[in-house]
Amino acid sequence: MSLHSLYVDLNSYFASVEQQLRPELRGKPVGVLPVMADTTCCIAASIDAKRFGVRTGTPVWQARKLCKDIVFVQARPAAYVEIHHRIVAAVESCTPVGAVLSIDEMACELMGSDRGETNAIALGQQIKRAIYDQVGEVLHSSVGIAPNRFLAKTASNMQKPDGLVVIRQNELPQRLYGLKLGALTGIGRAMEPRLNRLGIHSVEQLCAASKNTLRQAWGGIEGERFYAKLRGEGVESAPTQRASVGHSHVLAPDLRDPGSALAVLYRLLHKAAMRLRHYGYCAGGLSLHLTYLQRGNGPAHWSDQARFSPHADTFKFNPVLAQLWQRRPPDPAPILKVGVTLLHLAEHSQITRDLFDPDDQHEGLNSVLDQINQRYGPNSLYFGGAHSGRGSAPMRIAFSHVPELQVESDG
Ligand SMILES: [Mg+2]
Fold first, then answer.
1. pLDDT of residue 381
2. Helices 149-156 and 221-230 meet at what angle, rounded to 10?
3. Which of 95, 136, 189, 333 reaches 20 to 30 Å from 290, CA-CA?
4. What local confidence, expressed as pLDDT, does residue 403 receive?
5. Which residues are catalytic, by number?
6. Residue 207: its pLDDT value, please?
């Protein structure tokens, strides 16, 4: 049960989105260009173009030489961002997304029985299927599963396109020996010569190097971290380090009245509570944030929070949200943005149950709620108060992570 991380990397992302949106491009070599000019370079190449040796960064003239039938298209950043959000939602329908690392890469933390190999592989296949079914049938992805995120990302690079690779703890470090130094995240063009000067020219030599040598190469603690990551240590655990789980949402113009805003807040709370339970945590506090649309003087904020005995019960979070909501002063303007955060997290197993509330009667109900929403989509079963907010707060935890599109490379 040592598999802690699952990494999803879409293959030839920009070019695949073009092929998804324009079926006439499917199966053809496609180069995506930032502008339609002969002097520029491809920012992405379709899987078919890659077979001819066309890569991200290949100049247009060279791409034509390598592949005379290549079709060039101009990049459409807005479309790639929109599809990105749909892909994140598709992955979220299978398991919570722990971190969005780029427009086409995300990492999920494996919990409970998903840490076993059979379940982890089944989850990887389920995620690929969800992307095909919910977003697009030509959007292939490579999934990597490993003891930590660094190795899971490495695994996702080992089989393209449409890969699913597991790196097991007991295969370390030999499993990495076939890779080039530069294939490892964290070894860029500047680091490779530094390693060479220390006598390290291969991944095998890197794995054999002492902690001290790597410390020297990186010039500090980062070298020790790398040493640990290579060995499957250094598990990133999203909620424990942050000690909170929260969601916020900018309201559409027709939802900026108090009633709609509250309904959206309930929806966000229920999403946060579901993630909390998925991670096996309890929360000992809840905070509510409101941002008002203030024309002229910029947005005004209001927030408040409450503390309570730690639990993970949506039925008990609801009245806390209602009380905080009642505490707010008269709304000075339409509500632009709402947010809710579950605070003071602790692992479920470490909580001593509240003496005055010894039984958790809702545990079974919460668990059924989560299972249904995971299987049939995030809004299948919801609380009455969230009804009018349904659909307005899609699974979009990653929204803030991709504020701008980076078009240099899509790997
Ligand atoms: Mg990619």
1. 53
2. 60
3. 95
4. 32
5. 105
6. 96
Query: What's the CA gap between 205 and 194, in Å, rounded?
Result: 14
CA–CA separation, 42 vs 50, rounded Å?
Answer: 11
Q: Is 371 exposed, middle or buried (0-12, 13-18, 19+ CB in 10 A)?
A: exposed
Q: Contact 131/87 with Cβ under 8 angstroms?
A: yes
- pLDDT at position 375: 55
| Ligand 1 centroid from CA 154, angstroms | 12
Residue 25 DSSP one-character state: G
Domains, the chain, ordered by start: 1-169 (3.30.70.270), 172-238 (1.10.150.20), 245-408 (3.30.1490.100)
- What Rg, from alpha-carbon coordinates, does the chain have? 24
Distance 223 CA to ligand 1 centre (A): 26
Mean pLDDT by 10 residues, the chain (411 residues): 92 96 97 90 93 93 96 91 91 88 88 93 98 97 96 96 96 94 87 93 96 90 88 62 76 89 92 82 90 76 88 89 93 90 74 42 64 56 52 35 34 39
pLDDT of residue 54: 96
Integer Cα distance of 363 and 354 in angstroms: 15
Neighbours of 387 (CB within 10 A): 13
CA angle 181-182-187, nearest 5°? 90
pTM above 0.70, yes or no: no
CB 117 within 8 Å of CB 168:
yes
- pLDDT computed for residue 151 by the predictor: 96
Instruction: Say if residues 312 and 283 touch (Cβ distance below 8 Å).
Output: yes
Nearest to 50 by CA among 73, 29, 74, 26: 29
Do residues 291 and 300 touch, judged by C-beta distance below 8 A?
yes
- Rounded to the nearest whole angstrom, what is the distance from the C-alpha of residue 105 to the centroid of ligand 1? 6
Amino acid at 29: P
Residues with CB under 5 A from ligand 1 (ion): 9-10, 104, 411
The edge-to-edge listing of strands for the beta sheet with 44-45 is: 44-45, 30-33, 71-74
The alpha carbon of 275 and the centre of ligand 1 are apart by a number of angstroms equal to 26
Tell me, in angstroms, the distance from the centre of ligand 1 to residue 30's CA. 16
pLDDT at res. 167: 97
- List the beta strands (DSSP E) in 26-98: 30-33, 44-45, 71-74
Q: How far is the CA of 12 from the centre of ligand 1 (A)?
A: 6
Q: Which residues pair with 341 in a beta bridge?
A: 246, 287
